[in-house]
Amino acid sequence: MKESGEFELRVPLAAFSQSHGHNDVLGSQYGGEEVRSFTGVKLGVPSTDGADNYLILQKALDEGKDLVLSPGEYPLAASLEVKYPNQVILGLGYATLKAPLNGSPCILVHPKVPGVRIAGIMLEASVLTGTIPSSSLLQWGMPDVDDVGDSKNPSLLSDVFCRVGGASYDRHVSTEVMIQLYSGNIYGDNLWLWRADHVKLHPGEEANFPHISPYYRQTVMGECQVRNGMKVYGQAVTMVGLFIEHTTEDQLIWEGDNGYAAFYQCELPYDVDQSYADKSFVGYRIGPDVKIHTARGIGIYSNFRDFDVNVATAISHPESDGIVMSNLFTVYLDNQGKINSVVNGKGPSAVSESDRGRPFRCSDNTCSDDIGS
């Protein structure tokens, strides 16, 4: 706020380095800021009417304004579409956008629109009354448009959480994938993509696993369905602090080249049976056509509560000199089953008899049971 009492929107600018092969955004460093007058900002106030929320907020976006969303829940009748470079959608108090009922995303960023900033929001799945191909909670770009983005003006996803279930009594909420990134040069910082492992109890309902918690229902097979947490198709996408939990197929699929991930935490689903392993689902999958990818600090955990599930490996990637994976590990959390290897069939499993505080690690593409590696 200015001394005059007028509000301003302060937009941090990116800083850059050449640390791992392309013009990388340094999320931990400060590159200055752009100060924008609040005359170009729409302050959102939540309504229970999804049509009202959509019409009011989309009108502001179409006028080229930035959005600042006050705390609350915003059911949406249709996707909020970002069409102009450098627009900002900023949530206060983790303002929650609830997905349209037809399966379209809460937010759709159009291709070839660089410098967009989305931060501080929750995206929540709904009970779908219609289906569209590959439903999601956030879509950046389009599958039929080649958009490498702008390395000098990258886009940003920061402090964005997704949830499929948990906040609603209804266990039929669903989406195909939480986040789909078709455009390139996007930087992600602190993203938590969660398929609910527990949900609210209806009044008078008893917990199905009271020894775990008497206060919640533990999600079981067929509830709160979502196949994947994130799919990355864009080039030069960076993720720092990415957390994906409990989706029913591959947790993360990375198809775009020149990607970078650091500090990835993943829990495989609790409620699946051996068919999950038989279909070779993993916690981190790099697509077969990817030539260059770097990942550091990747942890995949197992807690197969309902069935004895034996997953072949936690991480799958093409065998290529351009794929650099370091500080990889698996952890056995509890219950049944195990992950039999860390990456591409290499490395022993973490099992109930092992010390969880000394998980098996792979460093610099070489597996070792020496925790100092």
Structural description of this entry:
The chain has 373 residues and is mainly beta. Helices cover 5% and strands 39% of the residues. The strands form six sheets. Strands 5, 6, 7, 9, 11, 13, 15, 19, 21, 23, 26, 28 and 29 form a 13-stranded mixed beta sheet that branches. The protein has an eight-stranded parallel beta sheet with strand order 8-10-12-14-18-20-22-25. It has a two-stranded antiparallel sheet with strand order 1-4.
The DSSP helix count reads 2
Biggest beta-sheet profile: 13 strands, mixed
User: What is the end-to-end distance?
Assistant: 49 Å
Strand proportion, as a percent range, falls in 35-45%
By secondary-structure content and strand pairing, the structural class works out as: mainly beta
Mean pLDDT, all residues: 90
Task: Tag the structure with descriptive keywords.
5% helix; 29 strands; 13-stranded mixed β-sheet; globular; mainly beta; 2 helices; 373 residues; 39% strand; single chain
TL;DR?
The chain is mainly β and 373 residues long. Helix content is 5%, strand content 39%.
